[in-house]
Amino acid sequence: MSESIVINGQEYLVQCERVMSRYARASLRGNTIRIRVPRFLWKRSAAKAYEELKQSMIKKIEKHGPEDVKMPIEFTEGTFSILGRQFNIEATRGSGTRSSARFRDNTIKITLANSIDESTKRSHTSRLARRALAKALSPLLTEHVMQLNSAHFKSKVNRITLRDNSTLWGSCSPENNIMLDFRLLFAPQDVMDAVIIHELAHTVKKNHSKAFWKLVTDIVPDYKEKRRWLKQNSFKLMPNTVSRNHDNAGVSL
Fold this sequence. Notes:
By secondary structure, the chain is an alpha/beta fold. The chain has 2 domains: 2-68, no CATH class; 78-244, 2-Layer Sandwich (Zincin-like), CATH 3.30.2010.10. Helix content is 36%, strand content 25%. Mean pLDDT is 84; it is low at 241-252.
């Protein structure tokens, strides 16, 4: 199923796909909006999920423009660079009913359940790769965040997590749990650090007062420029294979 719509004078192709997944989701690639709806949903429920996601995407593009619509990161089989290291993803079909991923020697080996068809292989592979990478890279990221904390704030930070497709680049809870968006791992080092400094500053000031912004800009004087870069380039922050890496892909911790 597909249809064409016009948003802010630009034509977009909306494609709907029924997939083996628990959740409905939408993504934007160029001028194509892809909406994936779980197969287990009845026809009426599937149509409702499709329409709700389509309208949500229309509102996001109308308000922010396509460049500032953050979508889930998609991984495919192949080699890519992240945190100054090269990783490889290999996916094979197994004989069992469950999929799994193993991380060893910078290679993510994914075994797909025998019930996974070709139409859902990519999304399944991507989801498992994200989980494996988040687990593998969390210690490196935690060490880096704590180094910045020690250098500038010396606050007590409890937990540091990576999440994909967050509405925010980062957050700091009242308990000083810091969340960072997975996409930051593909941004330039100084841009990623600016977001980390912002969240660490919230361990001192739980607001966006003048005192808070002084904490941030004393450490990152060009913080606004870094945020502007993220807004303009968020759609580029993806894991590209080595053959098509862009200049900003990968930071080194």
